[in-house]
Design goal:
Layout: H1 11-30, H2 43-49, E1 54-55, H3 56-63, H4 67-79, E2 83-87, E3 95-99, H5 101-125, H6 127-148
Antiparallel strand pairs: 1-3, 2-3
Helix pairs in contact: 3-4, 5-6
């Protein structure tokens, strides 16, 4: 059975283009506020640390990567002086990761940029469609993660 499909509406193509374009937009903005050594791939790690900090185990769980992957990226973020680590008070096997003052400033700038991007998207498609889009991404992501278990 042959599938007839509008190639401009193939989900894999659209997701690839959207990710590429949003990464490009974010990288362009980041270049104006942080060292060129900050790679866009650090973003999920960095933004999940937050102002309160997070344990390495929690970070592994939140972004669903290996402990080695977290360790490598955290070392890079430490080198950039955006985070620091300390032994967890309640678990000697766990490491806590915190933002430095420079990291907190960048975190705030990224949130401001995210709010600006959201405002542009809402202007383009409307608040209701934007919220539906985000809800849909969350639901699809949750479904894919449930398939891996």
């Amino acid at each position: 059975m042959e599938h007839q499909c509008d190639s401009d509406r193939v989900i894999f193509k659209l997701l690839y283009i959207l990710k590429r374009q949003t990464d490009k937009m974010a990288a362009s903005k980041l270049a104006t506020i942080v060292s060129g050594d900050f790679n866009i791939t650090y973003m999920p790690y960095f933004m999940n640390i937050g102002n309160e900090g997070i344990s390495n185990h929690e970070l592994v769980h939140k972004i669903k990567v290996t402990k080695q992957g977290v360790s490598k990226t955290v070392k890079e973020l430490e080198r950039l002086e955006l985070v620091y680590t300390a032994k967890a008070e309640n678990d000697a096997r766990s490491i806590m990761i915190y933002l430095t003052d420079e990291g907190k400033s960048l975190y705030s700038s990224i949130y401001t940029f995210a709010d600006e991007a959201k405002a542009k998207y809402v202007e383009l498609i409307g608040a209701k469609k934007y919220e539906q889009f985000i809800d849909t991404i969350v639901k699809l992501s949750d479904w894919h993660e449930s398939q891996e278990q």
